[in-house]
Amino acid sequence: MKLLISVLATALLVPAAAQAQSSPSYASASVSYLWGAPSGTPLYSITNGATATASIASNVSYNGQQEAYAQANLAAGTLRARSGGTADQINANAGAQFGDTFGAIDASTGRAYSWQAGDSVSFSFSVTGSVQSTLPAAEMAAKDKDFMSMVWFNFYAFKPGYFERQARLNALFNAPWPWPAEASAEIARLSAEIDALQLARSFVRLGQEYSPYYDASGLPYTSFSADTPTVISATFAPGGSFEWIALLDVSTRFAADTPLGYRPTFAIDFSHTVGASFSGPAGTVATSASGLFPDTVLMQAVPEPATWALLLAGLLLPAVARRRRG
């Protein structure tokens, strides 16, 4: 059920990005304003591609300036997002996400790796971010009953078949309302199948959450800073090739219940980057459907033995250089 809620939220926040998920790899960035933007300012922006960047900024005398920025770069393995500003009214959301299909090649033979039951893989996400605020968040919440400060990071891993089912699910979500009964039944069926495919999930609240929808004061969270990276890890045993997605979502909202007489600053900035890395079973080289994610090779391309040796050397050289610099 938790996964269904997340799938629904993703589809509602980034409806146009759904088309990118029909492929086995994608990057998507979305930003939006719900209110507070001047007339003529776009309410949302969505982009897709190996590197996806979306941005909206507004600047008007009565309101001040608010902004929403997001970038997903599959080739660099980075997610970035920022929302907020200095204004009488702030209500911005920024989301960045990417995903890929991974497998493995035996480094000694250059052939597809034969997965064993105990073989595990690990993702690691290095997170740096900051909050710029005129007042502490607790004081801003006291001045605005609808104050929102939410940063969510999600990682999911699935058995093969997630991307295809998610694309069908998104197509149903984007159909005209009201949905016919058969569409609702199909949504329930696809959601159950996606639940069954799930291998791993990491959900982290970055920083204390404030929400107008529920009391978040007792919810667990992970601290972060702009100077010392916070590491979020996920380790699991896929049993074979698998599909994964990572999502960063930043939401800010502030409009004082009683006018303050000045424009407060409130911005959550993760444009410093969420950087991803991956490690597979010993003696393997990771393959990816994109061929872009760092230290992976294109899944469909299985080189001849002579070129395989050169390819391995190319992958090893950057690692040796990093160790020498260290």
Work out the helicity level.
Answer: 10-25%
- Overall radius of gyration: 21 Å
Mean pLDDT: 84
What is the straight-line distance between the termini?
45 Å
The H-and-E topology, N to C, reads as HEEEEEEEEHEHHEEEEEEH
Can you tell me the residue ranges where pLDDT is under 50 for at least 5 consecutive residues?
1-23, 304-326
Largest sheet: 8 strands, mixed
Description:
This protein is an alpha+beta fold and 326 residues long. The protein has one domain. The chain is 21% helix and 40% strand. The protein contains 5 helices and 15 strands. The strands form 2 sheets. Strands 1, 2, 6, 9, 10, 12, 14 and 15 form an 8-stranded mixed beta sheet that branches. Strands 3, 4, 5, 7, 8, 11 and 13 form a 7-stranded antiparallel beta sheet that branches. Strand 3 and strand 4 form a beta hairpin. Helix 3 packs antiparallel against helix 4. The longest helix is centred in the C-terminal third of the chain and has 21 residues. The chain is globular, with a radius of gyration of 21 Å. It starts with a helix and ends with a helix.
